[in-house]
Design the sequence.
């Protein structure tokens, strides 16, 4: 059902509108977890120091959108995510749809928050940050190693062995 048709029907009769769309009341746990991970992964950001953060607004909007796409047969007709949210929220339909799914919304939200917490704890752990720093330094050394070896090679080519031997003989 197209979103605007649903909203018109919802204004006329909420119960009939909710019954007119197919709302899933259960999703297998593996699919719930996949949905949670997919939403979370789309919202992670790394700052200039490589610290993992999350855009919570995007997380919420993407989650609601993906939840509605997964649990209902509503056709959003390429509408903007925030426009869909506003249209459904302002009239109360969003809350009614979520209630229809039982505890599914909260279960997926819990899975998503656990995944985010674990990933951020791992990615932002002191050992991971130190490892990233060491890898960065190794990359710089590797990039510059050939240049340094070239300079050392040129210096060795210009050494006068006879002068070094004279100095050694005088010292001994």
Sequence:
């Amino acid at each position: 059902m197209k979103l605007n048709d649903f909203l018109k029907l919802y204004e006329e009769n909420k119960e009939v509108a909710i019954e007119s769309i197919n709302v899933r009341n259960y999703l297998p746990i593996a699919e719930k977890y996949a949905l949670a991970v997919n939403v979370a992964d789309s919202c992670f950001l790394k700052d200039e120091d490589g610290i993992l953060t999350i855009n919570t607004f995007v997380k919420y909007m993407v989650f609601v959108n993906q939840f509605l796409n997964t649990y209902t047969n509503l056709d959003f007709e390429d509408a903007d995510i925030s426009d869909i949210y506003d249209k459904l929220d302002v009239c109360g339909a969003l809350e009614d749809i979520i209630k229809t799914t039982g505890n599914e919304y909260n279960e997926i939200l819990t899975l998503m928050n656990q995944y985010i917490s674990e990933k951020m704890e791992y990615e932002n752990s002191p050992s991971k940050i130190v490892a990233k720093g060491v890898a960065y330094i190794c990359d710089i050394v590797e990039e510059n190693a050939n240049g340094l070896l070239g300079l050392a090679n040129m210096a060795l080519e210009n050494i006068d062995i006879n002068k070094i031997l004279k100095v050694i003989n005088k010292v001994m």
In short: The longest strand covers residues 44-46. Strands lie at 44-46, 52-54.
